[in-house]
């Protein structure tokens, strides 16, 4: 189970959650700005990836951006495995 104790320090703790679920990727800048100043952004991002959050901005990344990050990480891991073989 993914840890969530970092949430107590979240910069968005007292904000309207709607801000983090924008209608489109293009409308995510306000949420990104909050995340940019959040002390637990990396924990939040890893939680969202680990729990496969399908929507919303977490750790400053939208769902599409998280998907792209996961793909990049998978590609790097495959490359590292090939290099080690
Ligand atoms: S990174 Fe963003 S969504 Fe995650 S806890 Fe911080 S402010 Fe909230």
Shape: globular
Q: Look at the structure and give the mean pLDDT.
A: 96
Q: Major beta sheet, specifics?
A: none
The domain tally reads: 1
Order of helices and strands: HHH
Percentage beta strand: under 5%
Helix and strand content put the structural class at mainly alpha
What is Rg? 14 Å
Which ligands accompany this protein? iron/sulfur cluster
Helicity level: 40-55%
User: How many strand units?
Assistant: 0
Would you write up a description of this structure?
The chain is mainly alpha-helical and 85 residues long. The protein has one domain (17-84). Helix content is 47%, strand content 0%. It has three helices and no strands. Iron/sulfur cluster is lined by residues 10-12, 20, 34-35, 38, 40-41, 44, 58-60. Residues 10-12, 20, 34-35, 38, 40-41, 44, 58-60 line the site of iron/sulfur cluster.
Keywords:
85 residues, binds iron/sulfur cluster
Quick overview of this protein structure:
It is built from three helices and no strands.
Topology:
Layout: H1 29-36, H2 41-50, H3 63-84
The structure holds iron/sulfur cluster.
